[in-house]
Every structure is written in C-alpha cells, then in structure tokens.
Please model this.
Amino acid sequence: MVDLSVKLKDLELKNPVTTASGTFGFGEEFDDFIDLNKLGGIFVKGLTLHHREGNPYPRMAETPSGMLNAVGLQNKGIDYFISDIYPRIKHLDTEIIPNVNGSTVEDYIEVTEKINEIEGINAIELNISCPNVKEGGMAFGVSCPSAIAVTEAVRKAYDKTLIVKLSPNVTDITEIAKGVEDAGADAVSLVNTFLAMAIDAKTRKPILSTITGGLSGPAIKPIALRMVWQVYNAVRIPVSGMGGIMNATDAIEFMLAGASTIQVGTANFIDPTISIQIIDGIEQYCEENGFSAAMDLVGAMEV
Amino acid sequence: MKKIQDFNVKEYKWLNDSSYVIVLQSSYPIPEIKPGNFAEIAVPNASDVFLRRPISVLDVDRELNTLSFYIKVVGKGTKKLSELNIGEKVSIIYPLGNSFSINGIQNALIIGGGSGIAPFVLLGRKLQEEKVNVTFLFGARTKEEIVLTEEFSKYGEVISTTEDGSMGEKGLVTQHSVFKGDFPFDKIYTCGPDPMMKAVAKIALQKNIDCEASLENMMACGFGACLCCVTETTSGNLCVCTDGPVFNSKVLKW
Model:
C-alpha cells in the first residue's frame, strides 16, 4: 500500500494531484466525469474583489503542442464566490484552494481577508503571475520588490497556508522564489503561462483580441520542469509544480524535479478524467519502483 | 449527463470535394441528443492537433448506437478526421450545449450557411413531430455546396440561394424572395458564418419575429471550464459551450 499523502507546509493533501486554476472551473464542471473527492485539491478559477468580464473574444489560439489563452480573469467577484459558489462545493472531500488576484495590493488584501473568514478553506494561491490583465497580475510577479511587497501584505492578512504562484516571464525565477519565501510564503507554485502570441498570416491580424496571451500545454513542459528543479534547489519551502502535465509520467517527472504536489492544467480540457488517471499512475509507479510513499519521489532525481 | 466515450469509425459519406459525414458507433447506449447539441471530438494520432474539435451532432441512431457528424474540411483537425480507418477509435465528449426552443410555433424558417446546416436535421425532425411547418433556406457559393437536401426535404420544403446562381436563387440567403411580400413565419432558426447570422437576426428584428442563432466560437474544452468561447450578450460574456451554442438573437451584442 503506497502512502500517497503529501504536505505543502501545514496543508495536508490526500495525494499530490491537484487541478490548476483557470482550467477546472469550480470543480462542478467536471462532476459528470470524475469523483472530485478523489483529488488532492482543486485550485479554483481566479477570483478578484469585483466582478470582471474578462477580455473580448477571441481569447484562445491553438498552437503546436499547446494553446494560448487571454481570458483575463473573468469571474463574478469574491462575494459571489462566497455566497453562491462555495456553498455548492464545500461538501467535497478535497482541498478547495482559491486563487487570489488583484490590481492593487489593497485588492489582494481585501480578497484575502474575506477568504480568511471562510471555514473549510485551508489555503490560498496568491496569483502574481496572470499575463492577461492590464493592471496588477503579472506586474507584481516580474519584479522582486513588488512580489515581496504583495506577499508580505497578504501574509499579514492570512493565517493559513499561503501559496504564491510565480510567473516564468522573468530573468531568474529563483530570485523571485527566494524573495516570496523571505516575505512569508508557505509554498510556491510554478509555472503560470508564458507570455506569447499568434498571428494569422492570411489576415495579417493577431489571433487573440489582446494580441498577446499565455502559452500552456506540453510545449512549455521542459522549461517548466527546469524552473521547478531550479526553485526546488533554491528555497526551503515546498513547490507545487505545473506546466504541460498531460499524464502520470509527466507528473512524476515534476515530483522527481522537486515538486511536492502537481497541478494538472490544460490537459483537463482535452481529457476531463486525466487527473484521476494521474493519481492512479503515480500510485502504480511507486509500487513498481519500490517507493512506499509519494513524498519519497519529491526531488528524487538521481544525478 | 455529459460523457467521455470511445466510438469507432463506422463509415464515411463524402458529399462534395471538401465535406463529409462521419458515422461513429459505440458499444454503449447513447443518451438523448437534443437539436443543437454538439460533441468535442479528439482527433486520433495527430500530434499537430492539440485540442478536441467541437462539432454539431448531425444525426443519432439510438438502436445502432451511432452518431453522425457533418464536417467541412477547414483545417488540420477536420482534414485528419476525414482520413481515419474504418473501425478506428475516436474519443468524444458529449452531449454538450443547450438546444433550440420550439414552444408554440407554427411556421419555422431555418436558415443555414456553410457547415451551419448540421444541427438542422435533428431540429427539422423534432419540429415535424411537433406538427410545425418547416422551410429550410440554405445558402452557399455553388450548387455543389448545397448538400443533404434529400434528408432535409423529409421534414419540410428546401429552398436555396447560391452566389453563382447554379442552384436556387442567385445571391445571399438574406436576398431570397421568401423575405419579400407575404411572410408566414413565426420563428427563425439560423446557423452559419457570423455575418450571415447577423444579417438574418436583423431581418428577424425588423419583422418582429423570434430568432435563435447557433454560434460556432472557438473552444478549448466545450464544457464550461476554460471560458475561451465567450460571446458578448446583454448579460455579459457568456460561454457558447454551456450557455449556448443556441442564443436568442436579441441577447447577442454582435
């Protein structure tokens, strides 16, 4: 029997497999396909203080082994989440982890304070890496001083597990990771999408309404894997790894590189049952390779 | 309830140079499919086609457990789907989306262009069951692109326009003589390219007739998770995959 449970600092998850924010709605969208209670956790769709309509269509472009998105944090705001959505999903036997966004430090604090009041939510993911909003978002995550400032401010407002989601669109991701660790983050998650673009040569126009968007999918996996490994070696806090995970083998690679938990993202769009298959695949890998606990895979790459 | 299921390719029927009907068979029972519903089809063994393709259900046979899809070759995905072997496995997610409403109408005008005729076999059959008079108006560039007329004529009269005048009236659907003089219809359904649907919706508004349009926005997932396929409506951005694909044209801000 393999012990699949893992920890992100004080947050205990029944297994390392979680779903990435923005790719899994609020979980309900997948209820027809899988037993949501089997998941380690669900990082729900990004939340902001106020309702956001997001960016105009087109918001998506298919690219080689991946896709671009420019959704722009469409959501009905934190109050609607608390009053209407959370009551529908709180019964789930999995960690519901809100993804917190803001245009200003004050926004981040206000959203966090509201979540801090919710019983049953044990962690937040602080998103300082959304590439698709004009104000805030990635702007906080691409400079060390602003990443530190927003993390410190949210740390003061939040008692439970604080995970900071990092942008890969930086010169040295380890500097940002060390900065947010010193500012009080309990864990880091990486990577968010890569800033990218697509052009339709026939019309000579950008495909996305916003011109640029975020690249996800297997196209980014090797870079994401490298960044997870670098950050794992640079900080003492645990890492939640993601970037193009399509199957259990990909997930195991991220764990071997140093991820304590993994997030399945874009793959959910293609196979809504893939997260459960990945849990089973990790268990099978552990059995076949003599690991009695999934935690033993973390950073177990042999050099 | 939405399902993800493996089907096998049963047969292809080519309708012209670039469009075909693919029939997929399952070994499991098929749930009820409503007119307007679509499926997300994974393109097998195609490393350069990353996402599933959202395709309207053309027809369903719940005795044979088959689903058929009318597909026009427009890119890599629809081309690859045309080249599978008989018996080859295809994963589909279905049934997705909402459906057309048909309450209390007597005379329906169904206007389709391009691949936007696909949802109208199921709709035509349903309307016939409900004793609604149906007229299909299909528009295309040439007569070769006006397809499946034999099937549609089981449910109502088929009229058409072609841009080159090779079939029906010459011109665009919105220029058809059906719009001139006496207009007996109390409902318009439309599916096809956005400019055509917008023009149809405008006519419906002028004539004060209810109009429903089935949209074909690009999607990543098809079941409300990615929020990529939105259309702007009087209630803000809504997902074409879950709030649509069928919308009353009055709510669309296009």
About this structure: DSSP finds nine helices and 17 strands in chain A. The radius of gyration of chain A is 18 Å. Chain A has a mean pLDDT of 97. The domain at 6-54+73-194+216-297 of chain A is CATH 3.20.20.70 (TIM Barrel).
